[in-house]
Amino acid sequence: FRWLLITVLMAIGFCLLQVAGWVHLQRTGVQLFQISGAFLYLLSGLHLAHIAVGSTGLVWVMVDAYIHRRY
Question: Could you tell me where the DSSP H helices lie in the chain?
Answer without folding.
Answer: 2-27, 35-67
